[in-house]
Amino acid sequence: ILMVDEKGKNMKCLTFFLMLPETVKSRSKKSSKKGNSSSSSNSKLPPVCYEIITLKTKKKKKMAADIFPRKKPANTNTTAVQQYHQQNLNNNNTIPAPNWQGLYPTIRERNAVMFNNDLMADVHFVVGPPGGTQRLPGHKYVLAVGSSVFHAMFYGELAEDKDEIRIPDVEPAAFLAMLKYIYCDEIDLAADTVLATLYAAKKYIVPHLARACVNFLETSLSAKNACVLLSQSCLFEEPDLTQRCWEVIDAQAELALKSEGFCDIDFQTLESILRRETLNAKEIVVFEAALNWAEVECQRQELTATIENKRKVLGKALYLIRIPTMALDDFANGAAQSGILTLNETNDIFLWYTAAKKPELQFVSKPRKGLVPQRCHRFQSCAYRSNQWRYRGRCDSIQFAVDKRVFIAGFGLYGSSCGSAEYSAKIELKRQGVILGQNLSKYFSDGSSNTFPVWFEYPVQIEPDTFYTASVILDGNELSYFGQEGMTEVQCGKVTVQFQCSSDSTNGTGVQGGQIPELIFYA
């Protein structure tokens, strides 16, 4: 069989050469009469007569998916497909029905049937620590195609022919997630296993899965898990993730330090956080967080959580806490009575606060720089009139969106246009109706047209390209200044902020004029 076209040139058509049986028979008889002919010549008789049949074919080659476009299968096939998928997840090792290959139009889908399936498996993995292992089937060829480590393991120069391989340092769920990616080209990540999956992807050099894990972690990053992820990002050598963790820890330091995840970090990460110059937190919060970490560390080292053992596990990291920079009340009522300091240290720090000649201290005495808040002012001018702006407990609201992740720390608000006055302010930040942050406080205005900051208890993380609603309910008897010539878009440093009207506003505030002149944020 040869592949030729109609002209006999290009290999695009089929040509069949048909030898006539009668001709073959007669040639065989003539050949057998010759005594000096070899047996090899008899076996290679050329055809005397042949017929050419040309079959035309289309020029474009099609893949299986093109030939068999995916349609909604019948109920029987759907049930069978679902059974095979469930079988793969549960590792039931059920023998597939005859011609199961016909249920799947593409090689990718047929290959996916082999995921976590004993059918044709030529290797098994015992995954997990002792007491929590799971035996998983594998197929060397598929694994070698998906990972250079598996290729070296099965086909390299030092390959070992083992039917069972033990992997005690990887969690079974994470190993399954990696296998699912290799077999099915599907990424299935969960918050409770993504770090373990990242470890597996790094170990077996599956870079695209590792990048997907990092992206998942970045999008789910918050103050609650930032410290743990900082520790892991350094371990996995992911500088972008490390930088993102520091951004969250710096801006939402008090939330991060009070989280349960802070107590799970290693000693090296603890030192790096305590040494951080831009940590935006009160020093008493840093001190209390360090003591909480020390208590958990004692449990990890199977030590009784006494004052002596806490100080022992903290080691020199204790002196990274800037105790002399605390407010005097915080020191007197907190650190001084904690028992973690020696008597001499307590006396020296008290002298540091009060004496003209200050003693030398082992503790860092220079305050942290923290973060400098940025202010986005959305009005080009402000004004006041004899009958505007009154509050009477009504809501002023505006919607905004940013193009980069920021942390809203508070709002800048106008004050009285009739001299000094006190206002009660309830500020609120929402996303799609869900309250992300709110605070109730009072502030004094001096009668000028300046703005006065009102802060949230903790900065609120704002994701890019999503509109949030900023609201304030002010209560005050005096008339207030209000903004004019509002802008729909403001460039503030490297951050672009867009504004639009909010349906929550019942006191007249909008894009062109009104209240909430400033957003105060960290970036």
Describe this structure in words.
InterPro entries: BACK, BTB/POZ_dom, PHR, PHR_sf, SKP1/BTB/POZ_sf. Residues 121-191 form the BTB domain. It is found in: Cytoplasm. There is one protein chain. This protein has helices spanning 21-32, 39-42, 64-67, 75-90, 107-112, 140-146, 148-155, 172-184, 194-203, 207-219, 226-236, 239-251, 253-258, 267-274, 283-300, 307-314, 328-333, 343-354, and strands at 2-3, 14-17, 52-55, 123-127, 134-138, 164-167, 374-377, 379-383, 395-402, 406-414, 421-431, 434-445, 451-462, 468-475, 482-486, 489-492, 495-501, 518-522. With 523 residues, it is an alpha+beta fold. Helix content is 33%, strand content 22%. The protein folds into three domains: 81-220, Potassium Channel Kv1.1, Chain A, CATH 3.30.710; 234-354, Serine Threonine Protein Phosphatase 5, Tetratricopeptide repeat; 374-522, PHR domain (Jelly Rolls). Helix 8 packs across helix 9 (194-203) and helix 9 (194-203) runs antiparallel to helix 10 (207-219). 31% of the residues are buried.
Spatial sequence of strands, sheet with the most strands? 12-11-14-9-17-16
Radius of gyration: 37 Å
CATH topology of the largest domain: Jelly Rolls
How many β strands by DSSP? Answer: 18
Q: What percent of residues are in strands? A: 15-25%
Proper CATH architecture of the largest domain: Sandwich
| End-to-end Cα distance | 71 Å
Q: Quickly count the domains.
A: 3
CATH homology group of the largest domain? PHR domain
Low-pLDDT parts are: 1-81
CATH hierarchy, class of the largest domain? Mainly Beta
Approximate shape: flat
| Mean model confidence by pLDDT | 83
The portion of residues assigned to helices is 25-40%
> Which structural class matches the secondary elements?
alpha+beta
Q: What's the helix count?
A: 18
Describe the sheet with the most strands. Answer: 6 strands, antiparallel
Domain BTB: 121-191
Keywords: Cytoplasm
Pfam families: BACK, BTB, PHR
Subcellular location: Cytoplasm
